[in-house]
Amino acid sequence: MNTQSFVFTGSGGQGVITAAIILGEAAAIHEGLNAVQTQVYGPEARGGATRADVIISTEPIHFPKVVNANVLVCLTQEAYDKFGRIVQPGGLLIVDSLYVRATKNTEARQVMLPMYETTKKEIGNPVVFNICVLGCVLALTWVVTPDSVLSALKTKIAPKYVDMNSKALKLGLDMGEKWRASLGPVAAQKEAAKIKKS
Amino acid sequence: MNTQSFVFTGSGGQGVITAAIILGEAAAIHEGLNAVQTQVYGPEARGGATRADVIISTEPIHFPKVVNANVLVCLTQEAYDKFGRIVQPGGLLIVDSLYVRATKNTEARQVMLPMYETTKKEIGNPVVFNICVLGCVLALTWVVTPDSVLSALKTKIAPKYVDMNSKALKLGLDMGEKWRASLGPVAAQKEAAKIKKS
Q1: Which residues of A fall within a CB distance of 8 Å from B37?
Q2: What's the domain range around A184?
């Protein structure tokens, strides 16, 4: 990796800003990389889609806003409709299968996963939905290690919530890994090669 | 106001990023302004000073990083030593009087307030130190209303913590107002005029 850019989108309260901050801190504080994390709010932020950007790089980062994302995460249909075109051709588009029904971007590699429903079913508390999403992102990009994310997480939450967050992260990692495994050996190898190159 | 830029600095765990996010959301979601909120992390972020930027404007914002801050907040000596020069001449430098002992910036308007000690004494829980700081910033800049900040806060915290956070905000507002009143009527009027112009 030289530089990878991530855009997390969804509605207020889904925790996309927190997910972006944790990813940025995991990279910078626990892996010695450079990271920039940004929220851009316009008046349309009222009741609309939230967006949080992270750029992670081995080099200094000069412009902090993502123009063409390597990875775009959409957690609502509204967020997809608004930001769907940000992902670059060949990039990774990760959407939640409950909240996003229709995607028209055929140039990105699409990953539609039941992240919300699985979090609710397996953990019982949708508050860690965003951490499950982060697990999926890690499994599909290998941008930082799960340990770095856990270390960053631990500085943000009370000790009693660490266990629930770890479980949500593992849930997402497993879901992402399974998706890759489901491609079959040849496609999965190609996918892994693309991720390494990006 | 056309554009005002704020840089919050301190150590990890003091809540400077949260303060910046709440200020940005208060402006954009509750007052219809534009806002950009950014964290830039380098490898030096490990154990060092944290910095969170907010730009608030009536106009679209094209470059999200603050180069010359109208308002700089420093909550540790290390943060002051590292970022003290970011504040522009005539800008406002707000420091915590327990954590920051020495400031050499003579071109900024300096406000040294016992924000940490007052929060600890009056509320008993230093976790809301950052909200008290935000109250001081509001009292000294009038950038958004306290009500907008409270509305943004309420989307971030559990209902049982709203009361403690409201108290911390009021504590900071009072401290900032007192500082301005202590200038005497003529100086305070000049100060208010500067704020309105900036």
Answers
A1: 38-39, 41
A2: 3-197
**Domain containing residue A123: CATH number:** 3.40.920.10
User: Is B29's CB within 8 Å of A45's CB?
Assistant: yes
- Is A61 close to B46, i.e. CB distance below 8 A? no
Q: Does the distance separating the beta carbons of B43 and A61 come in below 8 Å?
A: no
CB contact under 8 A, A39 and B38: yes
User: Of the candidates B12, B40, B46, which has its C-beta nearest A64's C-beta?
Assistant: B40
How many domains does one find in chain B? Answer: 1
Q: What is the pTM of this model?
A: 0.85
CB contact under 8 A, A46 and B24: no
- The label of the residue with tokens 């112009």 reads B197
CB distance B134 to B169 below 8 Å: yes
Chain A environment of B38 (Cβ under 8 Å): 36-39, 64
Flag if A43 and B37 touch (Cβ within 8 Å). Answer: no
Residue with tokens 């397996």: A122
Strand order in the sheet with B69-74: A109-113, A87-96, A69-74, A3-11, A49-57, A34-41, B34-41, B49-57, B3-11, B69-74, B87-96, B109-113
Q: Which residue of B has its CA nearest to A40?
A: B36
The helix/strand/coil state of A48 is coil
ipTM value, please give it. 0.78
Note down pLDDT in tens along chain B; length 198 residues. 689 999 999 998 899 999 999 999 999 999 999 999 999 887 767 767 889 999 999 988 887 778 899 999 999 999 999 999 999 999 999 999 999 987 776 789 999 999 999 999 999 999 999 999 999 999 999 999 999 999 999 988 889 999 999 999 999 999 999 998 887 766 766 776 666 555
Partner residue opposite B38 with nearest CB, options A37, A42, A43: A37
CA–CA dist B35, B33 (Å, integer): 6
